[in-house]
Each structure stands twice: as C-alpha cells, then as structure tokens.
Amino acid sequence: MDLTVDHVPFAFADLESITEEFVRLGLEPEYGGVHGNGVTHMSVLGFDDRSYVELIAERERRKGEDHDFWPEHIRADAGPAAWCCRVPDVREECKRLLERGYAVYGPLSGSREREDGTLVEWEMAEFGSGTDEDVPFPFVIADRTPLSYRVEPAASVSGGPLEGIGQVVLGVDPGGLEDAIRAFRDCYGIPTPIRDSPAGFGTVASVPGQPVAFAAPDGDGWLADRLERFPGTPCSCLLATDDLEAAREAYPLEEPLEWPEGRVAFLDSDVLGRRLGVLERRS
C-alpha cells in the first residue's frame, strides 16, 4: 500500500519562538488553534498537496499539565515527535494491523478550535509492535469535518518550489535497522530500500516510491543522542521539491549533500539543525 503523509508534528516548548524561527526561514505558518485537551495549541505550515508541518506546544498558562500530545518532546524542543498518514477509514486500518498482530491504540477522537470558532474534528489511531522494540510506525488520521478545516496551503509556500512533505526519516538503532525494515515490509509492503551514508546520519535506507527512510547512526553524534532520548520517532522531515536550486534561491538552505535517490539541503538554522530539510529525488 502507498503511504500518504498527512503531517509531521514538530514539538517545541514555546509556539511563538519556533514560529518566529520558521518565519525567519521564509516558512510562515498560520495559527491553527487550541486542541480539545485545552493544554496544547498549534500552527500549520500547509503545502499545496495538503500535507503540513504542525508546530505544537503547550499553552503558556497550561504548561506542565498532563496531556497525550508528546509532552516530553514538547518540553525538550525535540522537533519531529511523530508522523501521521492519511487513510480513508481509521477503523479499517486498525482491523488490518490487528490481523497482522500489531498493537492498536484507537480509534481515538481528536479536535481543535480555530481562532475563527470553527471546530475541527478527526478520528485517529496509533500502532506499535506489541513488543519492547520501538517501531516508528505512523499514526493515522481520517477527517470528520472537511480536510480544508484542518489545513490549507500557507501563503509563504503555496505555488513555490516546496511541494509538500517528501520524506520522513525515522531514526532507528543500528541493531534494529533490519527489524524495522521487515516490520514495514510486513505492514505496508515496502520495496527494498536504497542505502547510502550521508554525513551525520550513518546508514540511510530510503524506500523507493514511498515517503519514508530509515537512519541508523554509525557512532556518537546528534542522531545517536536523539535515539537515546527519543527512540521510535522521526529524526528529520524532508520537504519535497523537483528543483533544489530554485528552493535554495527561495529559502536559506545549506549546501546539498548526496542522499539515497537524490540530494538533500537542510535549512540554515541553528534551532532546527538536521531536523528539517528539502529533498530533490532523482526522476
């Protein structure tokens, strides 16, 4: 089955501060409102394909309260905390994974209220391996209200060289790389990944035709440190473009590096580091 990325939540302690950094980079999001838990709120950087980066934080007067939207990631400015795929029917997806022996948490109801008073509602579910191993499966979502309530293309990126979320890079322990690939092949029927060793990422196994890659560190460094604290989560989100040079003219990007299936340039940001980049896949 094809994986359709819906969004990637970027978790930060202060929504205003991380929004300012995105604005500095030319990626101005739009405020999306307060979640139904009353504790977290978010902004949306929506693309023309209706995928989006979600900036999520705790509201100032509710910081430290209990909630289920990645509190540890939020309080640590962790950036990508999870990834979400869009499906036609959450219940059918739950049934499909249950039949394959995976742990299912859901269906769950979610909502948020936009500043204009519009109530946005959806259904979602999360999945796990059912073992002690952390498999970075996506959670899934299906809208109860129209998709346009939840995301519209942001003016800062609409019509430009950034098309949407091109690839989610999943950090995995080196000893668990093959197990993670096998789990995704069993669950989603992915083909054999293409491998390379980009600087700072160790081994990267990129799945042809799918918006997912696996990265396993080959020693100490930022990725190994991140995996120790946040196993089983994405380490990077790569935005899609078919013209990396045009993207570099429009946004502050570092020098490109070779990547399986193409080239990647990361945003020139000390705040984000290697957690947000732009991917140009070879045709």
UniProtKB/TrEMBL annotation:
Per the database record, which ranges form the Glyoxalase-like domain? 5-146
Q: Which InterPro entries match?
A: Glyas_Bleomycin-R_OHBP_Dase, Glyoxalase-like_dom
Instruction: Return the protein name.
Output: Glyoxalase-like domain-containing protein
Species = Natronobacterium haloterrestre (Halobiforma haloterrestris)
Pfam families the UniProt entry points to: Glyoxalase_3 (PF13468)
